[in-house]
Records
---
Amino acid sequence: MSATTPAPGQSRQRILDRIGAATQSVKKDASQLADAYRALPRAYIRRGALAAAARVELMIERLREYDAEVVESTPVALPAAIAAQLATSGKRIFAAPAGLPSEWLADGFDWKIDDSLATAKIEEAEGVVTAATCGVADSGTIVLHHSPAEGRRVLTLLPDWHLCILRASQVVETLPEYFSRCQQPPALHPRDQDLSLGTPALHPSDKDPSLGTPALVTTISGPSATADIEMTRIKGVHGPRFLHVILVRDES
Amino acid sequence: MSHAALNQPVLDPTLAPPFPQAALPVLRNPQLRKNVAHAIDVIQAKRAKLVAEKTDWQELRSAASAIRMHTLENLGAYLEEFEAKCTAAGGVVHWAADAADARQIILDILRQEGAGDVIKIKTMTSGEIQLNPFLQAAGVNVFETDLAEIILQLGEQEPSHIVVPALHLNRGQVREIFARRMGLKDLSDDPQALTAAARTYLRQKFLTIPTAISGANFFIAETGAVGVVESEGNGRMCLTLPRTMITLAGIEKVLPRFQDLEVTLQLLARSATGERMNPYNSIWTGVTPGDGPQRFHVVLLDNGRSSILAKPKQRQTLKCIRCAACMNSCPVYRQTGGHAYGSVYPGPIGAILTPQLMQMHHAQSLPFASSLCGACYEVCPVKINIPEVLLELRSQVVNQERRDLARFLDPMYLGLRIANLLFAWAWLFHASQFMGRIGIRFFTRNDGWIHSLPSVGGKWTQTRDLRGFPKQTFHGWWAARARQSSPASGKEAK
């Protein structure tokens, strides 16, 4: 370890030179590198085998194993289902992302719409309602890409209670299926997407709607938890202690 | 107490005592051994159940191993790609050749920010470069935010595991630390209450301290993104609320493409905590207007990694994704706990990583801290052949030591030199065998066993008996057998 700090940039070249020397014997040009990457073995399961109904059942089962509350609904009954969840939560002040469909904002509650809300205002909210991007049934994981209906990252973090609306058509069985949905660029920028459930999906003919490679991703698998003390699983440390999911049966 | 000094674990490999000596405090502490064994049993059982559920586990391991090795073989190209993409997305990438370099880069950023306080997400790399004491000495208050790290920081303890760093402490010990340091006299020892106390203690810090330091579980070359895998949400707090974020991680943490996470993320949580998926994964790309820190720095740390990369047999060490499955499965770690390894990286991976990061100048006892049973290799999600690397490092240590003049009269090396001589000539071997057989009779009791030997031999017989020599040597038996059988037949004797 040197006592003197090298000038900025000096370390960069030093490290890259060392790496270059260390890997000299296997050096590749750009096209060889791409070929070598494509040749990597990927014999693991890419696509799931479950039918749509079983896939959604698995998602619900896995979410419940994480102590998430799950109810099912339909596109038509969704606003009422949201209102019912909010009512039974016993909470009054809810945050919502700016892009949340207005029919989801049930009457009778104090809504804080996130048009650049100050952190202190979000902290005052007792709960938050958001949409989601994807659900991975195999691990019971909800994926957020933080589109306008999913909100900024802080929005689903500070309130202690999170109600997440997930559509059955967004549920995939395996993690690789989620990643393959991210492979192609989306037809529209996520911020321009129509997120209300009444309208058809972006690509009505496409079975796997393309999501594009996201700049921000948060995956949520149950409420925040720790097992740092004697490996006892404790629900709720800093993130929301309560995760509620409404699974909307939007597939025939 | 003559062992008082030993009871303070030293996790600086340049200062830590050799493994057998450092292991003594735990071996002599039944409570500590119980805490470690309990925690490991729980994780192991959960892991086994969830791994068995994955029918393509071996295929995932093979893919992960191949992706990691491919990345390492082309590390320069992928790091430069990451740097370009991260910079384009608004991040600032720094390169640190060694620990001192990294500490100074981070302090310089904090000084520019005028930061007197900093919140931290658990990062083993910061322990590796001993960042906290350095920042504290420079007048920066460091607040750890992971529950286990708070326990260790407030209790002035050292981590003993890379995923659950406070697993050597039980609830009573945690209660004592929290009650004393948070001023909560009536705190119960219920893990729920202890966790709630930590939540309250940190909430205001999350909301007010504008600078954070994190590690990274991966960098994505294709997009310039950075990822953090966690459970509690303290990571998300640090990644979201502050104005400035500094991420420190080793150069080996890069993955070629975003899609490669479909492999890593399936393996990591199952291996680390025995969950299908950990509660939160966060991935961010540079700076996003209106969401999260608006100033973002990445510090890429070499600190000995490029020298590991240069050795093809040892290169696989850098495939590690820090899941800790190897230490959870290790019969040695189970008995000694993590502190004995004299580094923030304990267990089998620590036994190979630490001496290499020290470029074989320190921690020379670690490659011997293993029974070579291979359990670590079997559970490793990226197929690091730890026993193979252990053997390679052992041979390097031995080669260093036997050339060391100070060890010229060391009984082991003296013995090996003599053996080398004896095995080189048959007559010398037979002569010494003849003499030895006469000599050994004086130590062989009537029951046919040797119960005690003098001098160096006593180290063996101290704890075990040795069977006496048989009446006939193998050479003697072979010669006699040849004489008895017919010279013409050449067939096997019955």
---
Amino acid sequence: MDPAESLRAAAAGDQTAWQAIVDRFSGLVWATARAHRLSRDDASDVAQTTWLRLVEHLDRIREPEKLGAWLATTARHESLRVIRHGSQEQPTNEPDLFEAPDDDTIDRLLLDRERDGLLWRAFARLSDRCKALLRLLLSDHEPSYEEVGAALGMPIGAIGPTRMRCLDTLRRSVDLQELSR
Amino acid sequence: MTDKAATNGEGERLLGELRLLAADVDPVPGEVTLFANAALDWRRMDAALAELLSDSLLEQESVAFARSGVTSTRAVTFRASDLVVDLEIHDADPGLALLGQLDPPAKAEVHVQRDDSSIVARAEADELGRFRLELPAGGRVRLLVRRESGPPVETSWISV
């Protein structure tokens, strides 16, 4: 997808071009809101507002090649607005990647108790910073560091080393759980 | 392969496994995808955009207010090339009261539109550009401003 081309076509009303943009960046926008620890309801609100913002700005994105970073920045600002506005209480029974699951949740999602449970628990044990960063990296179409930096308000230079450190912690936590089984 | 490369490879493999897990546990909701795909219908045809310039909700002071439990007024400003719209949003039990000011002052018709296309409030701005609107709280809205001269103006969407 060429963002400049797609933006031009979408601004002229080309639904196919618009859909290509949505497909490409939908995961990034969603992950940005979820990395801010918003509930699924609040994250939906943020994602929808972010897409409306892009429609408003179709003809005024100055650097089309940075469209992903623009969307991530917008989703981050909207997430902060929701946090400051006082979001609704977190519904307790919705699956949350950031919290260790119980067996019921794993069964309900038709996951593998052993392997998926182990991975999920290891992820949930990471620091908040690691979870936020990795949640971004887990979106489909793995985002660029520029997009991740925009989504989390993190300096780009910090992303590589943090990623390595977080994955290292994750790996050791998985190894440890495997040993103790 | 060095040890370091081997551990990196292992980390990347775990990331791949986690990506599959995240797709199961935390997918983008279908309603969000539907909304996003349909959002192109909201693009401006003949109106000018009044862009969100500032929102006190996004500034630090209002956080302190919110935490201290003091009800504060939310101030929002939109700017188009030839028009500034200032809004004060007050809690008015029930719902919200919006006090607005157009700059430069002009008589105008002001509508509040929700993101399901419905018009939830309307008012006339007087010759000094002032208007007052009442609407239910919650949801996403924008203002549509039609002056006696000049193109119609649409503001950015805000959540209220």
